[in-house]
């Protein structure tokens, strides 16, 4: 029972003799309770038995329930609970829709990410379903905001009825038509639609979002936001989403979060890697057969100043080079890549 309570998805295998087991029936009661109280996703699978047998209590299921009624005459409420749970167990036609939430690629070498995930999860207060919580991930470009957001998404997405990671919002929302496209993707991903709605009007789509997601517990990540109009179109108010929803926004502009009424206690500043983490990340990206000399490593670390993207670029440029093959052009090349 404790395992059921701690689960995000329950797959019930209804077999021919399922109803003959008192323990199985108690489990299905618990599962249906958690479905109502904790938003547990329930996926029935029918193995060599027709769904109507379970839902209407016919054939093998009816015989098994009759035997239970004979045994528990003084405790008929127990059998009533079993019947009700069996009847209410929903039939899901496309199990894959619920299970096929593909994990995001986080990073080739996710150094220092796990400890940050733990800190942000505490801000999200995932145990509470009383309201909608918005959290901002703030920091300079290349500091690892997107990497952290992806790791968070992978860690918690199964706790929600629907989820969506909108990447590169700044780059993909240059006009109203682009914003409508992002709104479409948001709805498609969170509602597990087979295709987009193709709504081209931003204001109209806002109303659709509020209507479709207003009672749905969703996880929405808006990555690299730089304009308030993006937030107004995609997550203007917490009331657009059902209780228990979590909205995570990554941005370089802290003032933008304040305008969205996300204040300091819900803003996580993504900081540079410490010296040990920076050295580890540089080493992983510069991996090679020849040992890089210590002064060369220290020079790269001093230049990168703990910025993960800089360490990745420098490590890749240093890979395979000897000390004689490294000069200031390496740093110029890394600066060019960081600017792009």
Could you characterize what this model shows?
With about 350 residues, the protein is α/β, with parallel strands linked by helices. Helix content is about 50%, strand content about 10%. Strands 4-5-6-3-7 form a five-stranded parallel β-sheet, with helices on both faces. The longest helix has 17 residues, at about 20-40. The chain is elongated, with a radius of gyration of 26 Å. Residues about 90-95 have low confidence and may be disordered.
Return the CATH topology of the largest domain: Rossmann fold
CATH class of the largest domain: Alpha Beta
Which CATH architecture of the largest domain?
Answer: 3-Layer(aba) Sandwich
Helix share of residues? 40-55%
Strand content: 5-15%
Number of distinct beta strands: 7
Structural class of the helices, strands and pairings? alpha/beta
The helix tally amounts to 16
N to C succession of SSEs = HEHEHHHHHEHEHHEHEHEHHHH
Amino-to-carboxy terminus distance: 53 Å
For the biggest sheet, the summary is: 5 strands, parallel
Mean of all residue-level pLDDT scores: 84
Domain unit count:
3
Low-confidence stretches: 92-97
Globally, the shape reads elongated
Q: Rg from C-alpha positions?
A: 26 Å
Strand order, largest beta sheet: 4-5-6-3-7
CATH superfamily (homologous) name of the largest domain: P-loop containing nucleotide triphosphate hydrolases
